[in-house]
Amino acid sequence: MEYPANFIHDIIEKDLAEENVGQIHTRFPPEPNGYLHIGSAKAIRINYTSANRFGGLFNLRYDDTNPEREDDEYVRSIREDLVWLIGEEPSGGIFFGSDYFEKCYEFAVELIKKDLAYVCDLSPEQMREMRGTLTESGQDSPFRERSVDENLDLFSRMKVGEFPVGACTLRAKIDMTSPNMNMRDPAIYRINYTTHHRTGDKWCIYPLYDFSHPIQDALEGITHSCCSIEFENHRPLYNWVVENVFAHPIRKARPEQYEFARLNMTYTVMSKRYLRELVETKLVDGWDDPRMPTLCGLRRRGYTPSAINDFLDRAGYSKSQSIVSVEMLEHCMREELNAKAYRKIAVLESLLVTIINYPVKPEVETFSIANHPGNAEFGRRDLPFTRQLYIERSDFAEIPPPKFHRLKLGTEVRLMGSYIIKCEEIVKGINGEIVELLCTADLETSNGVPADGRKVKGTIHWLSAEHCIESTVMQYERLFTAEEITGDYNEFLNRNSVRQIEGVKLEKSLSEAKAGERFQFVRTGYFCLDSKNQNVWNSIVDLKSSFKPS
Known about the structure:
alpha/beta; seven-stranded mixed sheet; 27 strands; 24% strand; elongated
């Protein structure tokens, strides 16, 4: 498979050419504290393609070193979403940060023995105060010069639970004067008595990400550790851990970290904390609500892995921060569906039409309709035509606006693929609402072309009232109202982002559709059968957009 060139692939090509590495090996290391979103997809894509393009291996590794926020529910969902996106299980295997707890502890002990780590009794607030600023050096902890034996004793007592939460941490002994704040004796272990989702209560101390992550990379043989740009300033600490734990000075024997810009998208919030808040306050229908930017939400909405990956590749991979239009994602999905989706007829808000001059026939008349107007290989289907039909209520106007070329009193319109009809009379209910149109059909125009050559401008879709089914359609707008969202996310939340339409009329054949199947509802948009509700259709994207791809 071919992938667009990017700077990470250029680095790998250079490493291979110079024989700096053996087999390429990458990983995606999510924390199982929420569901993956479209931003996560970028990290998956760049790590997966970097391995796949060069015949390497790709790991999924759960960063489960913070038990307070992690859960098996998220473990399951992450694996499902990742496999859905890449189309296969991770070639290098599936691992957990907790697989390496013993190793991390052993390595921490070794750092203490080398006098490269010490137990510090400062509180988090005191550590922050003594850390310094971007322009001022930090101050050494008063516990920095504890002896190796004392640190070993204290760390072992931390492990067996002698101290309360926050009483002490294990810190790397690096340089409190470093211009990089991350190198000013960072904490590498902390006390936490929360039950872990895999190891239970075996551990009450846990390694921090900056310490555990490079160790895990090295133990798994990761060659290129690709992560988002906010970890760029952490790279010196990543290298420090690898160099001092493994003492591998040559490139071939150690992982290297490379950073890329995160995905920022208009009208989208990707904060897992806020997305969790939306779920817990029931402002959305779960993590897989079709309005959510989560991968499971996009899947339920009807988006495909191929469209998402196409979008990611078009958006590109670089170190420069930018905001990508959500309309590009919609364009990629629309482009794919336009080529692949079968066409079906749906009447969302119906109005009854009676053809008063339509003769009684012994057999139901049918009209042959193309399943895809641009591809004959999709075949055709027969659509029943009867005396009573449904049309879209919006396709009739009692008082038509200018340039209205659909049905109105006394004028003609073409029924898609069948007869030309003319509205003769309007039937209203007791409240004055229009309940039925009485029309005549030009029964000589079964091919849609009048014999006398008169021009009929409008064409509308329709369904036989006797040969259709009823369903529910969910139409979605964007969950947020602003292109760029800053500050309080709730101020930008679109609380009218979903519209439920009951009693939608559909072609009878759609009763056999399977969950997740996608169709174009002609003249309306693209829709997907919901995965949770058997008779609900979710809007995917509209038929057209003003977006112009570059």
